[in-house]
Write a structure and sequence with these properties.
nine-stranded mixed β-sheet
Length: 529
């Protein structure tokens, strides 16, 4: 609750929330009227955003292969930069809701099959053109095209028709989906002139900063867009800079020496040391993100479910949580959902380390010889150590794991989605439907375990259209068990997002949806004069 109150206090201090709205939402959280008023008084005295300066970040997850095409976004740097130069139709809020951005109003038919979005008037692209409903239609068309390689294709495959009607966009789905507004928060869906069909990697959007520097794998930069539609709320710095620093130690050094004002992906093992740096604030928050070991279900030897089960049972989750995350997370159960999702089923048996049972399934699989596991520093904080720890636990089950440390640059283009056994991470999604549609639906572009299960696909479609929440929860429970027992993901733990800000950085909001304040820290933070 404190996290949500911090968020509300910051919004009212920044003028984004009225006094009446603040008191109403605070009361809904169970806060007394007296305490809510005291918070209101404190927020009123809080410093409002200041303009000026160059706001700098040192971030992990950048490579020479990065593109400004939103459909190709997969790693942190490209996503964080896009939140500077681009705008979405809607954004997730830290309390799990949806904030209207370019979509000013959203409504649906009773069966949740037809959705109408009123597009905000007077918003300008960086090239001087006005954002129109036609641009939104073109954007959604490009990402939902069956031939598209967009990471959002798995989400948008349910769209039947998209039409512009004046300043409104009308989307008709093949089946009802009560989560449609959450679909529109996907970070790939940056609204571009003509949907990016003319030049998908032009980097022209309607965000608070115009692209001035784009050196993939090295650095990115932008300058404040003077005609930004919400200039009093975002885009406070004169300029923003992102330096790609994939090495965790180097990021901390850059923050300590004031070369950058904020960093992401602080490794749990050094959090206590970072807290001791003068003026530095560690920004950690629990959420839906998870770290994983992915197996291709269609590639030998992982096409054998007994082998996959052996590798799942050979994972010592408690030890992994303690040694790698140092308690900054929670144990996972080999499916991508935890208690942060409203329709989570907490009665699914927790998988535990069982070397004897793992050995049984391993022998039953008929496999022998070493199994190659690829990893890298950029896979997730502590990924190399995690792979080596897993190697040790597998030995107790008679399984030999060969760990190969891959270069950071190129890991997301040359290893992820291409190699049959590798470490990875997911930040989670707004809803269970999104989490499953993006990575576990058989036709999803980002199905990084190559999981294909006809029954699972049918349940996903059924759950998407089910408006009865109890029935929907049961469907998701059945889907979770299928992924847990037949899928190719080993998810030993859900992580906390751990970032750090230096002296003078204000406006950072802890956001459970994604690290680096849902990738928006550069767009929303400011430097104290």
């Amino acid at each position: 609750m404190s996290q949500e109150l911090d968020y509300l206090s910051l919004r009212i201090a920044a003028g984004r929330l009225s006094r009446r709205e603040f008191l109403g939402r605070a009361t809904a959280l169970g806060v007394s009227a007296a305490f809510a008023n005291s918070l209101l008084a404190g927020a009123a005295k809080a410093q409002v955003p200041q303009r000026g300066g160059i706001l700098k970040a040192g971030l992990q997850g950048g490579a020479a292969t990065d593109s400004l095409d939103p459909g190709a976004f997969s790693a942190s740097v490209a996503i964080a930069f896009s939140k500077c130069w681009g705008e979405l139709l809607m954004e997730l809020t830290p309390d799990g809701g949806v904030e209207n951005r370019l979509a000013e109003e959203v409504g649906s038919s009773k069966d949740a099959k037809t959705w109408t979005m009123k597009i905000r008037k007077g918003v300008e692209f960086h090239n001087g053109k006005t954002v129109t409903a036609e641009d939104v239609v073109a954007t959604l068309e490009r990402h939902s095209d069956a031939k598209s390689k967009s990471g959002a294709l798995g989400l948008l495959g349910t769209i039947d028709t998209i039409k512009a009607n004046g300043d409104e966009v009308v989307v008709t789905l093949k089946g009802g989906n009560a989560d449609f507004p959450y679909m529109m928060t996907d970070y790939h869906l940056v609204i571009q002139p003509n949907g990016g069909k003319d030049d998908q990697a032009a980097g022209i959007g309607a965000g608070p900063y115009k692209v001035t520097v784009n050196e993939p794998g090295v650095r990115h930069g932008g300058e404040r867009f003077k005609n930004y539609w919400q200039g009093d709320k975002r885009g406070h710095a004169d300029q923003i800079e992102i330096t790609v620093i994939n090495d965790a130690t180097a990021r901390i050094s850059a923050l300590r020496s004031n070369q950058v004002h904020m960093i992401d992906r602080v490794e749990p093992k050094v959090v206590d040391l970072v807290k001791r740096i003068p003026g530095v604030t560690v920004q950690n928050v629990s959420g839906r993100g998870y770290y994983c070991f992915n197996m291709f279900c269609d590639t030998p030897p992982f096409d054998n479910n007994d082998l996959r089960m052996a590798l799942k049972l050979a994972m010592d989750r408690e030890q992994m949580l303690d040694k790698i995350l140092r308690g900054y997370g929670s144990v996972g159960n080999d499916f991508p959902i935890n208690e942060a999702y409203p329709l989570f089923s907490d009665d699914i048996e927790q998988r535990a380390f069982d070397p004897d049972k793992a050995k049984f399934h391993y022998q039953k699989s008929g496999h022998s010889g070493p199994i190659l596991l690829r990893t890298s520093d950029v896979a997730f904080p502590g990924a190399v150590d995690a792979a080596q720890l897993y190697q040790q636990s597998c030995t107790k089950a008679g399984i030999t794991i060969e760990v190969k440390r891959e270069p950071s640059d190129g890991y997301w283009s040359e290893v992820w989605l291409k190699q049959p056994f590798a470490t990875s991470f997911w930040t989670g999604r707004a809803t269970q439907d999104q989490a499953y549609s993006v990575a576990y639906l058989s036709t999803a572009a980002w199905n990084d375990t190559r999981f294909a299960n006809e029954k699972f696909d049918k349940l996903l479609i059924e759950a998407r259209a089910e408006l009865d929440q109890d029935k929907r929860k049961n469907l998701y429970r059945e889907m979770a068990i299928i992924v847990r027992d037949e899928g190719g993901v080993i998810a030993p733990f859900f992580n906390q997002f751990i970032d750090a800000t230096g002296p003078g950085v204000k406006g950072f909001v802890k956001h459970p949806a994604r690290d680096f304040s849902n990738a928006s820290a550069l767009a929303e933070c400011w430097l104290e004069a």
